[in-house]
Specification:
This protein has 472 residues and is mainly alpha-helical. The chain is 59% helix and 6% strand. A hairpin with a 5-residue loop joins strand 1 and strand 2.
Length: 472
């Protein structure tokens, strides 16, 4: 007979401490123990994570309000977008994935001034320093609305639209779209009649667009020449703005109308010469390009206009210190400015004597012949190989004066070449290793300039001074 199993005792619902096993004490965290799982090993990371979640929620809320609210709600949301976008790069990146850009663009043609202004400012701040946002804004159709604001908006909106075009045009993929949208002539209007900030922004936007891969997409109206020269005249020659202004002027100098406007502007050529002397390498490259375009197009018309502004010292220095393109351009324009008339050939013997005289004063009679020959070769004149240079140091009346702030001086040799022509010799600061005399000397026969100029550094001047006649 089967027996029932012995029933197990009922569980004690409230066991006393004496009747239940004693729990083992939990080890305290120490050097050999891991921290409790309840503790956050990186409290700063958790705080940032929570902050990111909060920011994402705010971005989504702004997107919702921009899309579905009434106009006042949308304006307020756009202002908050601007504020948040200005705060950090992360916020700008968050707007790239949220449905924010399209509702802002939809506000641009609104008849409400506040709505257009708020949308423009928000778009501008979303695009700053974020290439992805710039491209998305253009692809979403913002450019036609910006062009319309440039055309018919109030002054404040036109200048905000100019700033937006400037920012968007900094992205290479956007340049063809903007350049072919009709924005360029409207930017030139801002350049002519806008505020100082508007004009500066217009120059930068135009400069951005000028580097379009397809140059046919960018046609700069010649009316831009005068305001560009006016701005160049007043700006610092070494500034980035001067680079942009001279770059646009070089483009304008490729047309006859542009060249006429540049040469007719009071002080225009002088500003370009000063930019060659004082500007950055890029500014000097552009500026000498403008002068070369002028002189190449009609040497008879522009040669005297350019020479009148004293460009030779700056051009000579540029042949030594400029960019590769600037050096080539400087050599080319010096060739165009040089007087190649028959009178120059008549005066070549006098120049040989003058070169020998200068070389003797600096390096002594032993090295004078070799140095003078090198001088003449650098001038592009050469010497007669069948007749050695055996001129004697002449008693040329000499005057020296301080030329520039620093160790550069100008020595003036008054020379009568027996005609209405005279010689001007300019030496940039170039040296061969084996001689102390400047090696790159260019001779230029100029009308109504009865002197020969030698531009040397102070250390060379100190060597020359003992030989200079006292009758200064």
């Amino acid at each position: 007979m089967c027996q029932n199993p012995k029933p197990s005792p009922a569980p004690n619902p409230d066991p006393s401490p004496s009747s239940s096993p004693r729990p083992r004490p939990r080890p305290r965290p120490g050097p050999s123990h891991s921290p409790s799982p309840s503790r956050n090993p990186n409290p700063g990371g958790e705080e940032r994570w929570r902050g990111d979640l909060k920011k994402q929620a705010l971005v989504q809320d702004l997107a919702r309000r921009l899309s579905g609210g009434d106009m006042s709600t949308r304006v307020q949301a756009a202002r908050e977008v601007r504020k948040l976008a200005r705060a950090s790069a992360k916020s700008r990146s968050a707007f790239a994935v949220a449905p924010v850009v399209q509702p802002l663009i939809a506000m641009l043609p609104s008849p409400d001034h506040d709505a257009r202004e708020a949308a423009l400012l928000a778009i501008l701040n979303i695009a700053v320093r974020n290439e992805g946002n710039k491209d998305k804004i253009v692809k979403s159709g913002a450019v036609p609305h910006l062009v319309e604001l440039l055309r018919s908006g109030k002054n404040s909106l036109r200048e905000l639209a100019t700033a937006a075009v400037l920012t968007l045009s900094a992205s290479t993929p956007n340049k063809p779209t903007i350049a072919t949208s009709g924005a360029v002539p409207l930017l030139v209007e801002i350049l002519i009649s806008g505020s100082i900030q508007g004009r500066v922004d217009a120059v930068t936007a135009l400069y951005n667009l000028s580097s379009c891969e397809d140059s046919s997409n960018f046609i700069l109206p010649s009316e831009a020449a005068k305001p560009l020269l006016a701005l160049l005249k007043d700006c610092k020659r070494y500034s980035k703005f001067a680079e942009k202004a001279t770059g646009l002027l070089e483009i304008l100098s490729r047309t006859e109308e542009g060249r006429n406007l540049i040469s007719d502007f009071d002080g225009g050529i002088l500003s370009l010469v000063e930019t060659i002397e004082e500007g950055s390498l890029l500014s000097a490259e552009y500026a000498v390009g403008v002068l070369l375009s002028l002189c190449s197009s009609c040497r008879e018309k522009y040669r005297e206009l350019i020479l009148k502004e004293g460009p030779i010292p700056g051009l000579m220095l540029l042949t030594a210190e400029g960019t590769k393109k600037a050096r080539e351009r400087a050599h080319n324009i010096l060739d165009l400015l040089r007087d190649d008339s028959k009178k120059k050939k008549v005066a070549s013997k006098d120049l040989e004597i003058l070169a020998f005289d200068i070389a003797t004063r600096v390096d002594g009679p032993v090295k004078a012949a070799a140095t003078a020959k090198r001088i003449m070769e650098d001038m592009g004149l050469g010497v007669n190989p069948t007749r050695p240079l055996n001129g004697k140091p002449s008693s040329l009346p000499v005057a020296w004066e301080h030329f520039d702030e620093g160790a550069h001086f100008c020595i003036r040799y008054d020379v009568d070449l027996g005609s209405s022509m005279s010689a001007r010799i300019i030496c940039p600061l170039l040296y061969h290793d084996d001689i102390s005399f400047p090696s790159a000397i260019s001779a230029l026969l100029l009308p109504s300039a009865p002197c020969a100029l030698l531009l040397v550094p102070g250390e060379t001047l100190n060597r020359i001074l003992p030989f200079i006649p006292t009758s200064i």
